[in-house]
Design a protein that fits this description.
The structure is a single chain. By secondary structure, the protein is an all-alpha fold. It folds into two domains: 86 residues, Orthogonal Bundle (Arc Repressor Mutant, subunit A), CATH 1.10.10; 36 residues. It has six helices and no strands. The radius of gyration is 26 Å and the shape is elongated.
Length: 139
């Protein structure tokens, strides 16, 4: 297990600022934040590159997202109720009530399945080449 890193108070504030959606950040820019923290803007860049710092930012962003999850799910439900099939499917998937399936032709041997797949790629490439050649001849 990786060793926990202790961040300074200023680094913690920067970390939380990075984890906040851009539209919700105060101050709005890195330059303004650097001034507020009384550090050079290049210091913020150095902190970005500290081992484990961006991992901590993503962990914090996950906490921020988790806090917004009730509103996100409510909007998903609203969209599903308006008839969006994508939203309906996604909501059902989230609740474990829909599992996408794929039909597989089990009558093919692995070698035949591979050959059929490769033939499909060849057919697509041949069609693309034919389209290109036809376009060249007409221009």
């Amino acid at each position: 297990m990786p060793k926990a890193t202790t961040w300074t108070k200023k680094q913690q504030l920067f970390l939380q600022w990075l984890a906040t959606p851009k539209t919700d950040r105060a101050p709005k820019t890195r330059d303004e934040l650097a001034a507020e923290l009384a550090v050079d803007r290049r210091t913020l860049t150095r902190w970005d590159h500290l081992p484990g710092f961006m991992d901590a930012v993503f962990a914090e962003a996950g906490i921020v997202l988790d806090a917004r999850m009730p509103q996100i799910l409510a909007k998903l439900g609203d969209t599903a109720e308006l008839g969006s099939m994508e939203a309906i499917k996604f909501a059902l998937e989230l609740r474990g009530r829909y599992v996408p399936t794929t039909n597989i032709n089990a009558n093919l041997s692995p070698a035949d399945a591979l050959a059929a797949t490769l033939a499909g790629f060849d057919d697509a490439a041949d069609a693309e080449l034919q389209d290109w050649e036809n376009g060249r001849r007409t221009s």
